[in-house]
Specification:
The chain is mostly helical. The protein contains eleven helices and no strands.
Length: 197
């Protein structure tokens, strides 16, 4: 590991922590080990994060912010509800360190910034009810949104853990791209256009 020399120590710690979490899982993270990897004193990262919990919380805050921004951008562009689900899966695959931490509240500290950004992200997901309910034919739009989130979260988890590959789902579907798999699976709930099922 390259030693840290200058610049933004907070960012360097976050980046190294994200690598560790993506490779080994969040419970393997050690602030002391990250400091050693960066070649700084073990107390230097504590100035920014306080503890392992503080570091994991900062990762979750950043991740929720990135996901929220992506969902807002899609909504404002008029993307169908299905595309929000596809973006959710793509985010997880592109940012596995963030995704591994964001939905594990027992690892995270109490932080108003985390509450705010997580609530804003979940609000974007809940907007799916507003997006599909006006189309008619939806007896329980809230349940559809819950099912869609569960489907996309599960698909992302299967991809990140290697189980999608292990189960040979790609061969069965004849599709390799995770976004295409998400669209095909999600289309069963919302139709290819992302409208009402």
């Amino acid at each position: 590991m390259n030693a840290y020399h200058h610049g933004d120590l907070r960012r360097a710690v976050l980046d190294r922590a994200l690598q560790v979490v993506a490779d080994q899982g969040p419970t393997s993270l050690s602030l002391r080990a990250v400091a050693a990897d960066l070649g700084v004193s073990h107390t230097a990262p504590r100035h920014h994060f306080g503890s392992n919990t503080g570091l994991l919380t900062a990762i979750a805050v950043e991740g929720f912010g990135m996901l929220r921004d992506r969902l807002v951008e899609l909504r404002e562009a008029g993307a169908p509800f299905l595309e929000l689900g596809v973006a959710y899966v793509e985010f997880a695959v592109e940012h596995p360190g963030h995704f591994a931490v964001m939905f594990q509240p027992t690892l995270l500290g109490q932080d108003p910034a985390l509450d705010d950004v997580a609530d804003a992200t979940f609000a974007e997901l809940r907007r799916g009810v507003e997006a599909i309910a006006p189309h008619g034919g939806v007896a329980d739009a809230a349940a559809v949104v819950t099912a869609a989130w569960s489907l996309m979260h599960g698909l992302a988890t299967l991809e990140l853990t290697g189980n999608l590959e292990r189960s040979q789902i790609r061969q069965m579907l004849g599709v390799t791209d995770i976004a295409a798999i998400a669209r095909r699976a999600g289309g069963l709930l919302g139709g290819a256009s992302g409208g009402a099922p």
